[in-house]
Every structure is written in C-alpha cells, then in structure tokens.
Amino acid sequence: MNESLVDYVPSxxxxxxxxxxxxxxxxxxxxxxxxxxxxxxxxxxxKQNPVVLEILLPKEVTKTPSAMEAFLLNLNQTGGExxxxxxxxxGKTRPYFSLELASIEGKVRFFIWTWxxxxxxxxxxxxxxxxxxxxxxxxxYTKKINYNPSEYGLWGCEIxxxxxxxxxxxxxxxxxxxxxxxxxxxxKVDPITPTIEFLGSVGQRQQVWIQFIVRGHKDExxxxxSLRWGKFKKTxxxxxxxxxxxxxxxxxDNWKDSAAEEIKKIKEETVQVIKDKxxxxxxxxxxxxxGQSEVINALERSVSKPAYDVGIRAMYISENEFFDASNIxxxxxxxxQYGSHNLNGFKPKNxxxxxxxxxxxxxxxxxxxxxxxFEVYRARDYFYEPNKEKHMxxxxxxxxxxxHFPGQVxxxxxxxxxxxxxxEPPGNLPV
Length: 431
What we know:
Layout: H1 2-46, E1 50-58, H2 65-73, H3 84-88, E2 96-104, E3 107-115, H4 119-129, E4 134-138, E5 152-161, H5 193-200, E6 206-216, E7 221-222, H6 225-238, H7 241-248, E8 251-252, H8 254-269, E9 272-275, E10 281-284, H9 290-302, E11 307-319, H10 326-333, E12 346-349, H11 364-379, E13 392-395, H12 396-402, E14 417-418
Helix pairs in contact: 2-4, 2-12, 6-7, 8-9
C-alpha cells in the first residue's frame, strides 16, 4: 500500500508544477491589472483638483435636518463610470464628497470637500436650502499640520455600524424634529448637539477632525463566489448555459437584500406548529409583537430612501504638551446618541491603539497606524485601492442626522457666524 503511494509522488509533483505554471501568469496578470487600474484612477483624481468649502452659519438657523436631507439628495450621483472601459482603462469613478466637522482650538467649523467640477453645484444647492449661509473656498485645514510624532499626539479611529447596514440608526425624526412646524425651537432635541458641545470644549493647540466620506450607493456587490458557483451548477442543469452564466456574475444590493432577510427572519420567529383535529401539523403565523413590528417598519422605511456608501473617520490631534487623553473618550462618545438597542448604532474600529502591549512591543506599528490614518484622512481616501476600507450604507435621513447645521437650540459660542444678512440694494438708488 505504501509503495503504491510512493509511486504516485512524481505524478503529483508534476501535476502541481503544471497547475502552478498555468495559474501563475493569470495571478501575475491580475496583480498587474489591479495596479494599472489603481494608477489610472489616481491620475483621474489628480485632474479633478479638489477644493474645500467652508460654510459659515447665520446667527439663526431655523431649518431642521430635513433641509440637509434635501441637499444630500443632490449629492447622490452614481454616473461618470458607466462602462468597463471608463472604470478600468480611464480610471473614472463616480463623484464622492467629504462632509466634515472640525474643531480648531475650540472653534467649530463646517467643511465640504469636493472636486472643482462640483463646486458650483454644491454651493448653489446649499444656498437653495440655507439662504442665510455663506460658502467660501478655503485652504485645506488638514494641510496646516505636518504630522510628526515628536511634536504631535494623535488618536483616531474609523466608525462602523454595530449591526447589519439595513438596520437604521436613530434619526432626527426619532428625536421629534421631522417637521419644522411641530416644535418650537426651544423644545427641539437636536442629536448633533453633543457633538457641537464637545468640539467647542477642545482647548488651545488642540484639534478634532471628523469626516463623512460619501458617494451614491449602487447595486454593485457580487454574491460570494462559493454561492455563485453553486447557483451556476444548479442553473446549468435546469435552464442551460446562458442563464447559468448570468447567475455566475449576478450582482445584488446587499443593503436591500439584507433588510428583506431580516424581516423574513423576524416573521419566521413567530411561526408556531400546531396539530389540527386530524393530527396533521400546520404552521400558524401569529401577529408579531409591538417591538418586532417597530423593527420591521424601521427596516422597510430605511430601504425606501436613497442610499449612500459612507466611511466615517474621527481624529484628535494636539501638540504633545497640550494632549488631553480625556478627549479620546469624548470623541467616541459623541456617536452614542444615534444608537438604540433594537435597531443600530455606531462603534469605533481600526483605532490607533492596541489592547495588549505584546501586540506592538517596539511601538513601530502604532506609529505606522497613526501616520497612515493621518494621510488617508487628508487624502479623503476610502472606497478604492490602495486605501480601500469596508464602508457602511446609510440612507439620506440617517446621513442628514449625523451631519447637518444645528438650529438655535445649540447656543455654543464656538461658531464663526455670518454677522449680517446679505440683500440686494434697492433699485431706485441714484447713480
């Protein structure tokens, strides 16, 4: 028996060498093509000449987050990368934007990073929803710091959802400010208030940066290959080659499909099996509980609105002698008000820290993590190689909840506001 196995060893080796010889060119070509696409994409982005717009708020903002939601609907752009040639040989991508909040030594500022070609459109849509604001192009605040660990302390992280994307976070409507006429300003509970108050509390020589990098969501995710291959073989036997080929490369919207699966799962939990008078088993679907019904309604409402791919980063950076570690807890806590037990919430990931000392004995890994986070924040990279991260999906209502201009309920003095309203001069002035 052993001798017969030994006899097969040369054949096995030759077979392995043949497989490696045949597959290696494909592996090398795949890596080369991936690098080529990343390079063309970078060339395309460099031609877009990004700009940073700062939004100065008027003394009174009477708009609710629904105005921001209306503005965000215009940023849901999924064109510009229509063909495989555009994507793979010209490096084109659909436009993406970075909605940003920053505290510069306690002064709270709102920014939007965008491509030059989208600057005018962004400005006009902001003015359409917020007539009293002032939008100006400014120098990128992130480039005013040259990060050096010997001079600056830094802590940062990314933010992810605690459950599947389909489960919504608490939105401004859940806080009772869905309609402007429902509540007087002093009775509104604005969910962004804790964020503004924290940013306003940051001391001298310290900064906090928060960015929401967004792009229009598309049904572009392929079903995992193991599942596609199984469906391919089954479809091949049942329907033929053409349908099987389509099944192999089928795409789906994981966001909407996940919601449907969760709703199905909740309903299946209520199924009971009983026996009728003849002893036969029957499935009975009793009414879902109030809590289950609320979750189902929330899921259905969530996927009924336009969706965005979103990446969130948050960073605290300070000169070493002014570094205040208590701001780390404050930075992670400002996302807690959007969470609920039965739906969704936010939690940090990829933080610039380690749980155990042996994970980074010499401290080099930590320095590298901090430097990389600083660079990708400044570059506004998220969705593509080489700095691709797993993004979340938020709908327009959720996104407008975490990023909007606060109303009068936020009384912090840390804003630079527009001092007076601008108006056209009367037409009868003497010339």
